[in-house]
Amino acid sequence: MLPGGQRGNDHENTVTFGACRGTGCRSDDHHAGCSPDNTIVVGLSADASTFDPAQISSRDNANIAKHIFATLFQVNFEGEVQPYLVDETAVSEDGLSYTFTLKPDLTCEDGEPLTAEDVAYSFNRPADKASAFTGNTPGFVYTTLGFKSAEVVDDLNVKVNLTAKTTLALGMMAQVYIHCKDSYEAMTVEEAASNPVGSGSYRVASWDRGSQIVLEKVKDPGTFDTIIWRIIPEASTRTAELIAGNVDIITNVAPDQIDAINNSGSATVEQVDGTRRMQVGFNLGKGVEGMPGAKEIQDPKVRFAMQYAVDVPGICSQLLGTECTRMTSLVNPPNGNPDLEPIPYDPDMAEQLLDEAGYPRGENGVRFSIRLQGPRGRYLNDANVVQAIGQYLNDVGIETEVELLEWASVYSPLLRTKEMGPLFFLGQGGVTWNPLYDMSLFSTPDGATNYQSWTDQRWFDDWKLAIDADTVEEARPVINRMLKLFYDEGPWLQLYFQPDFYGVSNRIDWKPRRDEEIELFAAKLK
């Protein structure tokens, strides 16, 4: 049972719906659909925060960006690295230099030739210290790669230089968005955030912040001429728009709305076991220094005690509409440490460990106070999950103030500057094909994706050993040692791997991936 008798349903909003798009469509015309045949519409829970390739850091943002910007490689869910812009790859004997031969006749969005100069620029720009970029590329991608520089060999050949050998090299390089040097050198950083000039199949035709992003096709691959990404924060509204035929795909379907979609005659729900790692992060950095609770969570004994306070299986069954197993680390199964068991819900143990850590209840029943921040509408039923966690912590004497914030304009900027919390609810994407990818969030103490500012030197010393190994199997003893440290003293209150529910129109042939990547290049009409 959730604390305080909390309800698991989203709160309903009163919404006025616009007319269906397309000629002659009606809101009850479920079978014919209301989208033109050359257009696909996706309903997202959160807006993009930027289209600067060096600043993109969230999955929703990246799902749009991957249709605008091409990459050297693509990685499928099984971890197979497939050439995209690259024709040939040569690796130096020491594994520190990669020379890529580009496919001929590549172009930028504006029709200009895309050459090795553009690729080198795309790699070097995010690494510019003066610009202080904080997206995934300068964050965990470059810190994991040990990126050093990129240089032009000739028009079709570019060399990428690393400071350390890694088995993740090509997979990480596949996440660097290729963009066009002349266009970006002519823009300020502020202009680049809103005016992307891409190298991929689509261009941004318009961006009405908080409402929708419209992409127009400029070249293959891509089945649809137009992709519209509508921003619909409220889960019930996304469902209504899907059933009415106004959108073709929606994310984060609320569990209590699954039957309505499946019984609508116009759409069905596709469920996948996701790889997104949901957590309450402990902000251990200077961004929250002096705030209530910031000092107390510096103690790993306090952090470990708090694990017992939250009923994770109860949250899954009652708020997410499915069963789940609590995480034991930041690594997706089956790549975790097999010796670790999920920490059970045991509030009495939480109270005992908090007492032993030196934080007994006061006369008012409070041990200490703290703030828990979370986004509203970014993750599956996130507002109710955050409120439940806050109540669980209150129940063991940690007076918790819950604050829910809009994702794109408020919460995401706080993450970039590491000023959220001291407790903050977050999900970070992962994979099943390499544990080191999942662990690369903490490749350096000051990395952009180390939102918790965790600085335990034992972890970072072992990271160097693990990443330098020739194979994952060779690194396994070190990986297991690192995951045990993360279990005992890490910077996450560990929750669950998020189950993902997508609503899909009956007119569309499209299957979701487990890693939340929304690829529409091959989506088609039935």
Automatic annotation (TrEMBL):
Residues 80-449 form the Solute-binding protein family domain. It is found in: Periplasm. GO terms for cellular component: ATP-binding cassette (ABC) transporter complex; outer membrane-bounded periplasmic space. The keyword Transmembrane helix does not apply. The keyword Transport applies. It comes from the Bacteria. One of its GO terms (biological process) is peptide transport. Keywords: Signal, Transport. Pfam families: SBP_bac_5. GO terms for molecular function: peptide transmembrane transporter activity. Belongs to the bacterial solute-binding protein 5 family. PANTHER family: OLIGOPEPTIDE-BINDING PROTEIN APPA, PERIPLASMIC BINDING COMPONENT OF ABC TRANSPORTER. This is ABC transporter substrate-binding protein.
